[in-house]
Amino acid sequence: xxxxxxxxxxxxxxxxxxxxxxxxxxxxQNKLKHIKIGRKIIIPEAAIQEFIEANTKTNREWKxxxxxxxxxxxxxxxxxxxxxxxxxx
Length: 89
Known about the structure:
The model has no long low-confidence stretch (mean pLDDT 84). It is built from four helices and three strands; from the N terminus they run βααββαα. The chain has two domains: 56 residues, Molybdopterin biosynthesis moea protein, domain 2; 32 residues. By secondary structure, it is α+β, with helices and mostly antiparallel strands.
């Protein structure tokens, strides 16, 4: 990063290798801290660093997240099947 202390949405998107729309979504979801002055949104350098650190995972952590999501999906599908079987009876 440069010597700047804050960035526009477009600059932050470039730094994060994301699209501008994605950065706006992160802002609206309160996942990326920002400062709003009138209609202008600026993102402090510290907020970008914090976002990167909070969302950096090792391969093992990613696999654990994927496995957890897969098990939740399986449980949901199983529950739907058992609920629909109950309705048919």
